[in-house]
Amino acid sequence: MIREDGLAGRLWRIAIWAAVVIFVLNVLAVIAVVVIDSVAARWFGTWLPPAFVTHWYSDAWADFQLSDVLIVTFEIVAAVVVIAGVLGVTAAYALARRNFPGKQAVMLIFLAPLLVPPLTYGIPLATLLYKFGFGGTMGGVILANLVPTVPFMVLVMIPFIEQIDPRIEAAARVFGASTFSLFIRVLMPLLLPGILAGLLLVMVRTIAMFELTFLTAGPTSQTLVVALYYAVFASGVRAGQEVDVMAVVYMASTLIWLLIALRFVSPTQIVSRAKQRA
Amino acid sequence: MSATAASPQAVTPARMSLRQRLAARGIDSITLLVLPALLALVGLFVYPFIYGLIVSFAPKVGPFYENYHKFFSDPFLRSTIWHTLALAFPTTLLSILLALPIAFRVRLMRRQRTLTTILLLPMTLGTVLVAQGLLTYLGPHGWFNRVLMLLHISGRPLELTNNYWGVFASLVLTGFPFTFLLTLSYVSGIDPALEEAAATLGGGAWNRFMRIFLPLLAPGLAVTFCLSFVQSFSVFPSAVLLGAPAGSTHVIAIAAYQAAFEQYNYSLGSAIAMIMGGVQLVIVIAVLASRQLFYRGPVGGTKG
What we know:
heterodimer, A: mainly alpha, MetI-like fold, 2 domains, 12 helices, 76% helix, globular, disordered C terminus, B: MetI-like fold, 72% helix, disordered N terminus
């Protein structure tokens, strides 16, 4: 490792750490404002609210029907995670192990949804879903959310699968394993950390996915983020603190999963197989 | 051939043409595993995309190009492209310029996981929560303005919400973690031996960056720019909640949404969505093409 010990080098280091500190402080302040306001009796024009209460949580729970919204969110996210996991891992396995004519075109189809703004395909997709009777239903929301998550899962899994020595699979084949038992008994145990990391990120992305859910959801199929949007959009109807309660619930529900995901993999590992030097 | 044809599973013509040189049947079936995901994407992405393109050329009244003509002749609609680019370009660039030096620092740290986790935190917050938080935080009585006034940087509260700067701040906050994650993985993929060699040969910090790192990083930075740009370019909820959706932050996503789901003109909405994708595509191609100007090759040490 090389250190610059001159004055310029030291100033540059200080400037970088200052930038990090300012960024982190602002992020924490934004979170703190939301959390503090959710337990504030009344907060206007002072550094901190004069009194703290907890009744906004029970109020918001009743007013926004948060338990219903949470159940719907959970059901949608679980369905997306399972379907994206099965489709993504199998497709990633084929793409990692085989070369076939048209593979470039297939890869392009898997890359395109990540490079096109969600609204560009979201608007025609929502129109079609309404046309076929899926609009406003939970099924429609799940189908729409598969578009970005399946390619994401495929692209995350390909490097993980390439890391596994193909001779292990060849050995399993020699002993007569079918493709299915190869998957269940050989690949799954080896791929488990990668699959878990990928699925947890799919989960975070689906909870946070606003545009596609917003376009396809009806009143009974709103996820937390869409309900939060409507609450902020119509702020003034309800107390601001209740909106912040919903924001806190939303934050907690994504944060837990991200922290779990980061316990399984190093963050950079998700994007590439960067070699970490000891 | 006779071996594959004898199998009842081998009647798919795609498989016959694919793998005649592979006798083992089980290997062919692995290639087919790509099909479920592929069919799902063809049905949910390719088909709607083509449908949208066709619908956009079938306006309610007028010739087939009427929607596109309307978009480019109506200054209120046309200006959305500039509003979006004026937000997306500076925020993406700022995120990369912030992420690059920080990633260089973090790369040298032994315990990077904690700091990386903290820096990735805003990713979980999502645009709607950040918008709600910033409305209070940057508001006239918020902490940000209070600190500025306490430090006598500003005499009166700055107007930072319901305009361009509110959306700008939210895009940097939500965009930075993703940019940082990508940049960090590209930076740590470069073999440190290359930098050590340059330092041994007397290259200063600036020279090492310009002559060793930048050429090696250019392809990765181009990809990072594209992926971050997609997120900024499709800004929608924060532009509504935190910006001036009828004025300076009337971005193209709002125009597309309003046309399709408020005026129920799906044809115009699809047309605007296609224009959005088109502008995005032009910029991605331009950025990816510009990376041809840089070095292309391995980023590992070359000595075996």
